[in-house]
Amino acid sequence: MGYSVGKVAGLAGVTVRTLHHYDEIGLLSPSGRSHAGHRRYDDADLDRLQRILFYRELGFPLEEVAVLLDDPRSDPQQHLRRQHALLSERITRLQQMAEAVEHAMEAKKMGINLTPEERFEVFGDHDPGQYAKEAEQRWGATDAYAQSRARAAAHTKDDWKRILAEAEDINRRLAALMDCGASAGSAAAMDLAEEHRGWISQNHYDCSHAMHTCLGEMYIADERFAAHYDAVRPGLAVFLRDAITANAVRGA
Question: 61-84 burial by CB neighbour count: b if 16+ within 10 A, else e?
């Protein structure tokens, strides 16, 4: 007897009107009719409907769906292979979209209110929200964290460009001191350490000498920070830590 149009609509999650339309345009005509002339669908019809709905879900217009299904060179196995390939492509795109949304959410947690285009322009491939969860877990209850978020939220694209440029300049001058053979306890190195502390206080949160000293220790204890500074100049992480410590003693 087959399936009634209402039964098929319920199984497929579509409306009866949709099935009538598919029949009218020749995309899915039922294989039979009841004695009263009502549409009756068999298993092959349901299989075709499943493929129609799959392609529709991927955004194919009905005209293209009809061509795909009625291609005389295509067989059920080819349809499955095509569907698998299309699904794989869609999964990849959705994963990329999900990652982009997640990065945006993490950047918002850090207080960075830039558009995706602005974030890319300022930070390039570096994700400023990459360690947002970790930062919140470690320092979320501190005044410094709250202050950092508030200041970050107020920074514009140009502010971030300036902040990054200033940090790069301080690192470059520290590396130049190392190249000249200056010690981390020299007046010039301590002056740059103080400038570094001022850079943090101005742009992120009020940084005392004690807090600055803790940061210096983190710069060598955390391999990510150490790699960042040592990429500028090998040994720079330790040099900066020692200059920060010497400056803190000087400022005590």
Answer: eeeebbebeeeeeeeeeebeeebe
> CB neighbours (10 Å) of residue 10?
12
Model confidence pLDDT, tens digit, residues 117-139: 656 555 565 555 555 666 667 77
Q: Hey, is 246 helix, strand or coil?
A: helix
**Separation of alpha carbons 96 and 99, rounded Å:** 5
CA contacts within 13 A on the Cβ side of 52: 22
Asked if residue 182 lies in contact with residue 240, where contact means CB atoms within 8 angstroms, the answer is no
Confidence (pTM): 0.53
The set of residues, in sequence order, having a beta carbon less than 8 Å from that of 142 and lying 6+ positions away, is none
**Using alpha carbons only, what angle is made at residue 127 by residues 139 and 243, rounded to the nearest 5 degrees?**
60
